[in-house]
Amino acid sequence: MSFTFKAIAHIQLAAPKGSEDTSRRFFKDILGFTELEKPAELKKRGGVWFGFGNYQLHIGIEEPFSPAKKAHPAFEVENIEELKLHLINSGVNIIEDGNYPGANRFYTSDPFGNRLEFLEWID
Q1: How far is residue 99's CA from residue 40's CA, in Å, rounded to a whole number?
Q2: Does residue 80 sit in helix, strand or coil?
Q3: Which of 46, 68, 76, 88 could, after both became Cys, cross-link 61 (CB 3.0–4.6 A)?
């Protein structure tokens, strides 16, 4: 083959129309992601983009909207216990899952019902 995959450019999650402010409260204010400027032509479609480390998370508007209950991004974090406490103290429900050998992980949902996984590798 003459092509090579280099990286994932971004992850996209769907959200209902008018959800930009709710997205900001969750992904920026609670999770601490940085909001990114969308290109002018793409702003017309709605949604909002965020960045963390070298990664981007795009929240795109989908009508009719249906949350992803099984398919999900998995975020590797450092100090996962601190993240759990922060989310719980912010009113976010979490679901513990000890079924992945070598990882401490849990699930939650974004404000629109999309599944999110957070994990930290155990040394």
Answers
A1: 44
A2: helix
A3: 46
